[in-house]
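To whoever picks this up:

The parser on our side crashed when reading a file containing two proteins. I've narrowed it down to the boundary between the first structure block and the second sequence. Both blocks are reproduced below exactly, byte for byte. First block:
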Amino acid sequence: MAEVVRMPKLSDTMTDGVVAKWHKKIGDKVKSGELLADIETDKATMEFESFQNGVLLHIGVQENKSVPVDSILAILGSEGEDISLLLAEEAKKLSDVKEEVKQEPEKESLSPKKEINIESALVVKSNTQETVNTISSGERQKISPLAKKLATDKGIRLNTLKGTGDGGRVIKRDVDNYQSNGVVADFVGVESYIDEPVSQMRKTIARRLGESKFSAPHFYLTMEINMDEIIKAREVINTVASMKISFNDIVIKAVASSLRKHPKINSSWLIDKIRYNNHIHIGVAIAVEEGLLVPVVRFADSKTLTQIAAEVKNYSTKAKDKKLQPSDWEGNTFTISNLGMFGIEEFTAIINPPDSCILAVGGIKQVPVVKSGQIVPGNTMKVTLSCDHRAVDGVLGAAFLQTLKYNLENPILLLGAYSI
């Protein structure tokens, strides 16, 4: 008997899916556990395996097309089986759902109509084909529709035009003869644009960060940190470490160590309670073509610098290849976003739910600093902590940044009992 295969929900935030590639075509035999299609979710492209045996009788979603979760992905059954009745039933279900949705707006029609402020609207006199425009002086400016269109196309402000028509009406020749500072506005350009469909990942980024920004009251704390000792320490570490350590790897380690001393920063706002996490899972923002992914370095405070470096490098490769799995990006308790490698000196980041805080890391910059009463060259880095004021107060955030600053300016503390 034929069975419907539906668009699966492959992540907790997925509402729609896109079939990136079909690995089978209609008429092919499909075995349970065999690869059926690649499905693009809001965060990655994932392989979808069949859960049953059969022949592929129907493909419900073409490649690169988006459909909601639970829509018909395919139908599997016996060779030559008639599935017309099954398709008709599914079409009726879809029609019933659309009808319910369609009836909802009708309720809105019962509400009072919005009043229109006639005074602020443009008044068009059809008998004379003139448009009356209100100018800043309070006087009414008469302008013909053709003149108005020409002026708009040329980027000429209407209130700068002087009319030579009847009663001071602005007509076509006034626009043609218009001069601004002695220069005729006759430049002609070509307008063009490209519409690109919003990817599932970008939709989720927009929704989640919109919810965070407009529901969580953000405040920001910025601190400048001297990086001279870190630069020296990194040079020495990279001469003996099994793999190269980046400044970002060191920041992750320093943040994790600081969170251990300030557990209230490592928290989540849960409406009726605040969750203080005993474990430290650092989300690391990684840029890909479609947006940002945030894989998680788990138990970061207990890992060595080389372990952190290897994990972040692996995540970066998987993110760019769209191979990250849900287990890779779930469970963060704190997030770091670093744009220093792009030359950004300072910025603020939007909190990544469910975290209470996110740290924005800028680039290292050489500046004059005072040491022992002398002005000498130094290297500094600015970090900005975005905090959810519902869970974290200013003093808590400031104390955390002080500890972070101390750890980065004294890198020997980051090694502790752990090897490189």
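<<boundary where parser fails>>
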Amino acid sequence: MVAAATSRLESLCSRTAVPATSLLLLAGATGLLVGSLRSSIFAQLTVQGLALGSVYGSLALALVLVYRATHVVNFAQGELAMATTYVAWQLIQWGLSYWEAFAVTLAIAFVLGTVLQVVLIRPVQHRSVIAAVIVTVGLFILIDGVVDWVWGSALKFMPSPFGTKTYDVGGVSISRLYPGMFLVVLASVLLVWALFRFTKLGLAMRAAALRPAESALVGVRVDWMLAIGWGLAAVLGAVAGLMAEPSQFVLQPTLMQPILVYAFAAAVLGGLESPAGAVIGGLAIGVSLTLVVQYVHPITSDLQTPVAFAVLVGVLLLKPSGLFGQREVRRV
């Protein structure tokens, strides 16, 4: 009887959590709209924050895809994104245009992510989570060393993918860079969502991630589905890296390290089991950090990463499942 009452209470909490989260998001969006209408600087910062937040959300979504498939946090996701950005830079040096290099880099990222899963992750993923995490940490160090060995640590520069023009919207001057970043990331996320939602491959990948044993019984090649998932995560990471570089103005080996912290915060805020939560969390982190640096004077741009880390710790302490995640309940 007690167990039944507990189960009903947990079900009620899970049903009321979603409307509460929706109301919170609606309140936040309303606040941004009102602030943007009252202040041109606020509007510029909001657009900038949404663009940067989309980058954080893309990398956070890559983390969520890997975590849902293997329950492993890929600490090398940011460095993999950084390495593929260097690949794009090299392709441009060889004569390709920016968008040609962009397309080729995404293909290379997919192959690289798939190969890394097959060669390094698959042999240890069934042993223990700690073993797989240690491998990703080692991969972080390996990628960093290889990039420094091949391309060096000197600053490099890539052409701007969107030019230097600005838009004038209601008296607010907005650089074309930020809407361009947002739209490219949004298109990438929507394509990945459509793949998972409307294709047999996406269905097989979801089944392999959620119910691997049952999926194998009906003929799904679980190991290969997980490898493809790592490939897609690498593609999203590459998009994040290629869109982060124009906002940083330079390419260097540390390009994605602070962004990885923001992406972790976004993934935890939205819920490590929720792809939509990762994207929304990234947008929330991007806008919040941009506005906090402008309007909270003790906090400067140098403190953005510590603030994001504080958000990460706070969410883990107060609501580990995140805004859109569901608490795992085990009966013993």
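After patching the parser it read the second block fine. The longest strand covers residues 166-169. Residues 81 and 237 are 5 Å apart (CA to CA).
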